[in-house]
Description:
This protein is α+β, with helices and mostly antiparallel strands. It folds into two domains: 1-34, no CATH class; 37-107. Helices cover 18% and strands 36% of the residues. It has two helices and six strands. The model has no long low-confidence stretch (mean pLDDT 88).
Amino acid sequence: MKLLQLPLSEIKDLPTREAIKKIQDFINEEEMLQFGFRKLQFTFTKDASGLKIPHKLKFVPRDIFFTHFEGTGNVTINYGKFDATNMDFDITGVDPSRPMKLRLLVGAYPEPV
């Protein structure tokens, strides 16, 4: 799938066309961009069970990458309870004086062929 398909032949200036083609190729080859990953950030000050968090994607996410974890507590990801609108988490062991701060990449990496 190509995310970006520009009419390069219409760009008359050769250095500009080549520069734009490099950008287009980078975007089209970058896997993380192709699969609709979204960066989300949350802070939790108390425990929660069955916590529904909107993912703002147009599909049910299958993959979550933690890019940052700070503070106290544990996160359980309830993938089986994800739907077209929300993700579902259990948050435990949070010390309110050291809140849990999370940054995630949420999306769906393609199944192997």
